[in-house]
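Journal club side-thread
Mid-discussion, someone asked how the predicted structure for our own chain would compare to the paper's figures. Pasting it here so we can look after the session.
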Amino acid sequence: MVASSVFVNDVVQVLPNPYALTIKPRLEYSVYLTQSIFDKLQKQWVLARKSNLKSYLQNDSAKEDYEFNKQVEYEGTLTSAITAIKMIQKRLESVSQISNITETVSPMISILRTLNSNIYLTSPQISQDFIELSGILGSIVMDSGSLIEAKFDFKQTNLESKQILDEVNLIAESKIRKQYPNLNF
């Protein structure tokens, strides 16, 4: 572990690296924040689903309506975000050693930024939470990477993020198609 040294009463004392001491609390806060984001997304999803389902069942012309399709698209965005947040939370909870933080957490940052770009206009509060979580995870990855002298492979990280997002989007699309089978997307 990288250490810091300080003078105390004219004697050099070696202290552990302060970043090493702050990784675990930030990781725990990140898990808490993902749960908070999940709860907010879930509330918005329930409202959107109720409204969309009511319109879908009551009005046959809703299937052709541009506004209704936009509302269903928003529901799909929320479904994707909920699925991704669950995956992120599971990954964060799976971190057991400082050595696997960079591989486990790095792809999540890109996923959060993508989710944020999809939701920032419709849900500004959740967007702020995505930004906060992304920043915290970025600092955790950088600090843990510097402590273990990790090398970052951004190409591999981006590829993994893209694969996870593709999987999340397929899951969300499947759920939406099952919910609204007669809609043209």
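Post-session note: Helices lie at 18-58, 66-94, 101-119, 124-148, 154-179.
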